[in-house]
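Changelog note: in this version the structure field was regenerated for every chain. One regenerated record is shown below for reference.
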Amino acid sequence: MTPLVAAALEVARRVSRRFRRSRIGNRLDHPRLDRLRGRLLPAMGPQDVLDSVACLSSAGISAWVAGGWGVDALAGRQTRRHRDLDLVIDREALERAISCLQALGYRRQRELVAELVPGSLLPERAVLANAVGQVVDLHPVDLETWAPVGDAAPFATGTIASRSVGCLSADVQRAGRRGYSLDVDDHHDLSLLDGFDHGA
């Protein structure tokens, strides 16, 4: 897959996500669109997650799995298909993390890097994609001051493919979805999170 095609898939992914979270998209039943998107956008599998986390760890960079994979890590099993991987890292390690993931074939999507999301618990993201269109979103935060949900612990330990991984806590995962128009995947993730005790 050429860089141009990978960039086009990323644009399609962003447009699709915005549509699904809009008032119109949130109310429409569109299984055909879901199937089409599933064919166009490659999945991010368990081994892809573990490879990315291991790559960062080998460079001395701690990373915590967020987003849908973060919820599945807390659940201890993969419960749905994932189109990308969200990782929270220390802001000071961002450039090293990008360099590390480049060794796995990911390339920085410069036009999308550090997209600001006002009011979000993770206000910035650096987007990387590989040749087949798999996407990693790096979310840099200041670990010394980041307290997304008051006194609640921001981090937890989960399991992906029988391997322990750091991930965001259930409280932070819940809070991170507030204020957005939720799509089908968000509702799925929240239903899983409702089964976890607060503080997990």
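Spot check on this record: The beta strands are 63-66, 84-90, 107-108, 126-129, 135-141, 155-160, 163-168. DSSP finds eight helices and seven strands in the chain.
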